[in-house]
Structures are given as C-alpha cells and as structure tokens.
Write a structure and sequence with these properties.
InterPro entries: Endo/exonu/phosph_ase_sf. The structure is a single chain. 0% of the residues lie in helices and 28% in strands. The chain is built from no helices and 4 strands. It has a two-stranded antiparallel sheet with strand order 1-2. Strands 3-4 form a two-stranded antiparallel sheet.
C-alpha cells in the first residue's frame, strides 16, 4: 500500500477500535488513505460519546482535503 497510498494520520496514531468502551488504547484498524495531488487540511479521530454511549465499536475518522495546485 505504501508505494501507492499515503495515510492521513502519521504513524503511529492511537487505536480506533475500542469495543464500545471508549478506551483509546485499542487496535489501529481504521484508515483514511489517499494518493495524488491532495493537501490534508485537517484530520481527526472523533472520541466523543453521545450521553456516555458509543454508537460504534470504532471511533470515526475524518479528513478534510484540498486539491493541490
């Protein structure tokens, strides 16, 4: 993958699998990969619970890109 794609998050980044516990020390099993002329403007792992509830056993990942000129 590395010769063709880049990860939005620099390695190592905290785990994203938490098994509904909210523990940030889980496995790193979620990725946002990209290639080409894109600039990363922002990226985030969303660790927020909704009323102490996690709707997934993975933390969501977000990335904002801008086309390079």
């Amino acid at each position: 993958i590395k010769p063709y794609f880049q990860s939005v998050f620099q390695e190592p980044f905290p785990g994203t699998h938490h098994g509904f516990t909210g523990d940030a020390n889980g496995d790193q099993i979620d990725w946002i990969l990209y290639r080409g002329t894109l600039d990363i403007k922002d990226c985030k792992i969303d660790r927020d619970a909704i009323e102490n509830f996690y709707p997934s056993d993975h933390f969501p990942l977000y990335a904002l890109f801008k086309w390079s000129t």
